[in-house]
Structures are given as structure tokens and as C-alpha cells.
Amino acid sequence: MSINKLDNQTNIIIRDIPIQIVRKSIKNLHIGVYPPDGSVRVAAPLQLTDDNIRLAIISRLSWIKKHQAKFQAQPRQTKREMVAGESHYVFGHRYRMEVIERPGQHEIVIINHSTIQLFVNPGTSAKNRALVLTEWYRQQLKLKIPDLLNKWQSIIGEEVADWGIKKMKTKWGSCNIKERRIWLNLELAKKPIECLEYVLVHELVHLLERHHNQRFQAYMDQYLPQWRQCREILNREPLGDI
Length: 242
Known about the structure:
The structure is a single chain. The protein has 2 domains: about 1-75, no CATH class; about 125-235, Metalloproteases ("zincins"), catalytic domain (Zincin-like, 2-Layer Sandwich), CATH 3.30.2010. The chain is about 35% helix and about 30% strand. It has helices at about 50-60, 60-75, 125-155, 195-205, 215-225, 225-235; strands at about 1-5, 10-15, 15-25, 30-35, 40-45, 85-90, 95-100, 105-110, 115-120, 160-165, 175, 180-185. The strands form 3 sheets. Strands 1-2-3-5-4 form a 5-stranded mixed beta sheet. The chain has a 4-stranded mixed beta sheet with strand order 6-7-9-8, covered by helices on one side. It has a 3-stranded mixed beta sheet with strand order 10-12-11, with helices on one face. Helix 3 (about 125-155) crosses helix 4 (about 195-205). The longest helix is centred in the middle third of the chain and has 31 residues, at about 125-155.
């Protein structure tokens, strides 16, 4: 086992598995395996000794390897070249891309519920085409989120002070409880709208319950009974090239 410490974060390797340990003001130790590559993160109580943390991880090694294998077996979208004929997903629907080069403002238009047209200036690189699509995805989420947020804030009885959209490699969403701010993964623009709603509700429920415990799950069952199906969709959907 090798150890590398940084403030309250410790990076260790146990049986060739890199593991990030973060000490927090919590009661119970939590082990998580995260997409896209099965990275392992451990949230540990401040008072728990290094030896006890290591023993807890070793006792869960078979569980960790099982979940890592699941992530590694997931289909992944191939790297996008941003050329005509590629498939791109918008809120769970697949669209065939058309690239139209012409002078003027870059824009994206969906036609016939089957085609996504990308209008760019002649000679625009694949990287810049991708940036146009990324910004368009961001705008699509900004159009959807306010109505969903207003709906669920009213139902749950909690309000956020701020929300935002960003690329995240290991989470679909996050909630800063102290600042009452939530972040949503940009990749949700590609997933079914029900998944966006699920992640939004999930983060709002954290304002009622910080931890993923039975109380948290009871709230999720109360507000969104189908939340487990949505979670399963996100776990099995192809991971985007982000």
C-alpha cells in the first residue's frame, strides 16, 4: 500500500487500486465507485484512524472490483469528429448530424425530429464545432431547468440560492448545502428528460437530508417513486466523450 497525503485528502493504493480518501465531519464511512472509469473515493469521519479506514476498504474490495468491472463494461460513445452522419443525443433522442458550412453566425437547428443541423463558417475546426454544440447543449438545459426547479422547489418546500451547469466526470449533480447551490452535469442534456428531473430532485432532497441514508431514500420514494429506474438509466447509458 502506498500513501500520498494532501491536507485532509489521502491518496492510497491497495492491491493495485488507487483510492482517494477525504476526511469530513461525518459519522459514518462511505465508499463510492464512480463513472466513467470506476474511480474509488472514500469519505471518512475525522476521528477514524488510518488503519480502520484501510481495513474497511479491504473488507469491501470485492464490492469495489465488481462495480469497477461494471463501469469498464459499459458502452461508451466514440470520440466525436463533428462530421455529417454522426449520431448525437438530445434529451435521450438520437439525431443524425448535418454540417452546413456558410458565412455567418454559428447555430444549431433540429429538423423533422431526426436531424441536427450544425451551421458553421467554412473551415471551422472539429474542436470549434464541438464548442458550438457544447454551448448549445448548455442553452437547452437552461431552457428546461427553471420550470423543473420551480415545480420541485414548491413540492419539496426547499429553495436554492443559485444553480449552475458544468462538466463533471464523476457526478451527475452536486449540492452545496451551506450555500444552497446546486450544480448539474452538462451531459444531462443528452439523457432522457426524466433523468434531468431525477438529478434535480436528488440534489434538492439533500437540503432535507445531507447523507444517502434511509431517510434520504424515503424522501426520494415520497417525491419521485421511479427514481431508481432513472438512476439505472444513467448507470447503463453510454458515457459521453467529456
